[in-house]
Every structure is written in C-alpha cells, then in structure tokens.
Amino acid sequence: MYSTSNQTVINLTFKGFVILFLLSSCSSSRMPYFKDLVQNEPLDQSFHALVVRDPSSQEVLYSHNGDRYFTPASNTKIVTLYSGIKLLPNHAPALKYNARKDTLYFEGTGDPTLAHPYYKEQTTLTFLKDYKVLYWVPNNTSEDRYGPGWAWEDYDTYFSPEKSELPIYGNVVTTWKDSSRHLLPEYFKKDLKSETNKFRRAEFKNDFYIPEHRTDTLEIPFIIDEALTLNLLEEVLNMRVYTVNQFPEGPKQTLSGIPMDSIYKRMMHKSDNFLAEQILMMASSTLTDTLSTRTAINHMLEHYLNDLNTQPRWVDGSGLSRYNLFTPKSFTTILQKLYNEVSHDRLLTLFPMWDETGTVEHWTHSEIEPFIFAKSGSFGNHYNLSGYIKTSSGKLLIFSMMNNHFRVPSSQIRAEIYATLKEIHRSY
C-alpha cells in the first residue's frame, strides 16, 4: 500500500507538467523544455514524458523527455492505423483470386473478418459459394505464428491469437454457457474438456479446458495449421475445398471486403491485438505476394515515417512485444500526419474517448463534454496515452504522455494523466 505522502508526490509531479505548460503558454508561443520537474519517491525510479503539439502550426508547445525511447505497448496501434490508411484501400482486400469458369483459385490476404464472431462477414463466403470447384493456394506468408518478443505464457489468452494468412473465426474458439455449453466453431466440441486447468488450452495441442461453472463468454486461441484451416473452411462453406501449390497463369484479382474503418475502429476502441496484426499483413498484400509484417513496417519506415525525429524500433502491429521502442515526439509526429490526412470527424471517431478509468464507450461526465480522444497502451509497470485533446477554447491539441517502469498502481497514473489533461483542456 502506498502512503498519502507518496500520492501527494505523484500529484505534484504531474501537476508540474500542467503548471509549466500553463505558465509557458501565457508567456510564450513556444513552451520551454524543462528538466527540473519534481522527481521524488516513488517516481524518482520511474520514467515519464509529456509532449504537447499544436497541429495547426505544427509547433511543439511543450516537451519533457520527448526524445527519449519508451516501450509503447498498444500505442503501437496508432502506427498500425496510419499504416493501414496509407497502404490499404477503403475496403479490406478479402482474397486474391483467379477465376476459370466455375473453378476458383484463391489465397488469403490476412483479412481477419472471415466468419469472425463480431463481424459475421458474409462477402467472402458468398463469393466462394458461387463457384463449384475451389482451390486454395496456402503458405503465402513468411510470418511466424507469434510476433517477436511476445510472452510465451499468453498462448491461451484472448488477446494473443496466432497470426495467419487466412484467418477464420478470429483464430479463437468462443464459448459461453446458459442452459448448455455453446462453442464457435462447433468443430472443436470433441476437444473441449470440462475440467479446471492452469491454462485454458494445452500448449501444443487444441485441447481446451473449461470448468462447468464458467458461464461467461471466453475466447481461447487455437493452434493453426493448413489442415485445420482447410477443415474449418469446408465446414463453414459446407462444400469441398482442395489445396494446390500455385496459381494458374494469369493475373490475380482482389475481392473487396468490408469497410476498413470498421476494422480500424474496433482495433482502436477494443485494443484488439489480432486485428492489429492482421492489418499489417493485409497492408503487405498490397506490396508483395508474400504476406509479411516486416515488409509493411520497412515500407512505412522508408516512405512515410522517414521524417521521425528518431528511428523507432518497430516489430509488430499490436504492441504486444516489449522490443518496440518509440519516442513521444515520434507519436506526436504520426498523430500530426493523421490530423493532416484524415478528416477530423472521421479521425475522432476512430480514436476512442478516454477518462481516468481508461477507454470508455459511453461518456458519463455530465459536467463536461468528451475532450480526450486517445489510444492507451499498457502492460505491467507501463501506461501510455497518445492522441488528441479538445480545449475549452475550441482548440485541438496533440499529446503523448508516456509512463514506463513505475511501481505504483496504474490507476494512480491514469488518474493523474486525466487531471493533467483536464487542466490543459480547461486552461488553454
């Protein structure tokens, strides 16, 4: 438990950001870089940053540790969002295919919506059912099932599904119980065991452990291989699907799927790691026939992010990896690009609302309108928030507030972030 005095120090530290911000905004158009912020126990052993930017003038108004590297966690999804907007069309590339009369050859593009429990996507299924003979051309990816630096013990958790070229059902088993146990897809019913286990799935086998008393909805990743994907595809189509090693001669066409904004919005609002990873795989499908997260990342760094103040270390789409390193100034630069290139109404729809509790679906503060539209990013001892803040004067500002290596409860960090941003909202 942390003492009242320690909590006071936290308050002073973050309020220091606000005070310096407000004093500087009154005296100068550019806020000074200030090193001597209060850094006492317990914050003297942790790492914090705040950068505030005016997108109209593109001026950095305030920067504390803005050029330092931080582990971004799910703030990485902001970069994934920008990558999708730059590299993908308005509708998801659902499949690449070559049609020969009543025969269709097709391959995956990484589109995550096929039979997804949330999207209930039918475009691809309807298209495939229009042909009498289906040939799937698999293995058009260089991806490992997990990203570099992911935690191995998360293999049974909802936020860590495997990546794949032709995802189906979101690459998870969804189960819930009312009068009976339900399973989607039902293909795995034979693999369901009504017992308690430390993990919800065997590490190297699709055996699932759900005790009888669990009635809530659970999502458990399944292990993907070519044979399983083929079986699930045949089950959902109710028709035979064959595999073949290569396409016939001739150009490939691309099937348009659902609007990308519906994928972006769920990725950002739900912090959906699976969607984030598959967005980068889809993005690579516009650059090469071999799906590769690294190809998409390298292309973005070379062509659209080559003006960042410091070169990031960027390894995945979701931010699950602790290998990722970005600076707060880099995030404000990317947020500036989004501000410049995306309509503001659309942009603030893609970014979720946020308050001291975290991301919120419904705004409950009757005394004030929503004013923070931002993506959070957290795992143990890390909490970051980057996005846009509406001020009481009608100004829209960009900010990135990153906090790494703290030992206080993250709820305290969230509360102080909110207090800081609320003061900026009120005073600027």
Give a structural overview.
This protein has 428 residues and is α+β, with helices and mostly antiparallel strands. 30% of the residues lie in helices and 22% in strands. The protein has helices spanning 4-27, 76-87, 123-129, 226-237, 260-270, 273-285, 293-303, 328-341, 344-350, 410-427, and strands spanning 47-54, 59-64, 91-100, 103-108, 133-136, 172-177, 181-184, 192-193, 208-209, 218-221, 242-243, 253-259, 353-355, 358-360, 372-379, 382-390, 396-404. Strand 1 and strand 2 form a beta hairpin. Residues 1-5 and 21-42 have low confidence and may be disordered.
Give the SSE layout.
Blueprint: H1 4-27, E1 47-54, E2 59-64, H2 76-87, E3 91-100, E4 103-108, H3 123-129, E5 133-136, E6 172-177, E7 181-184, E8 192-193, E9 208-209, E10 218-221, H4 226-237, E11 242-243, E12 253-259, H5 260-270, H6 273-285, H7 293-303, H8 328-341, H9 344-350, E13 353-355, E14 358-360, E15 372-379, E16 382-390, E17 396-404, H10 410-427
Short summary of the structure?
Pfam families: Peptidase_S13. The protein is of the alpha+beta class and about 425 residues long.
Main traits of this protein?
globular; 2 domains; 428 residues; 30% helix; disordered N terminus; five-stranded antiparallel beta sheet; five-stranded mixed beta sheet; alpha+beta; 17 strands
**SSE arrangement, N to C:** HEEHEEHEEEEEEHEEHHHHHEEEEEH
The number of helical runs is: 10
How helix-rich are the residues, as a percent range? 25-40%
Strand content: 15-25%
| Major sheet attributes | 5 strands, antiparallel
Number of domains: 2
Report, as a whole number of angstroms, the end-to-end distance.
36 Å
Mean pLDDT: 90
Uncertain regions spanning at least 5 consecutive residues? 1-5, 21-42
Strand order of the largest sheet: 2-1-17-16-15
Gyration radius, in Å: 23 Å
Structural class: alpha+beta
Shape: globular
Number of strands: 17
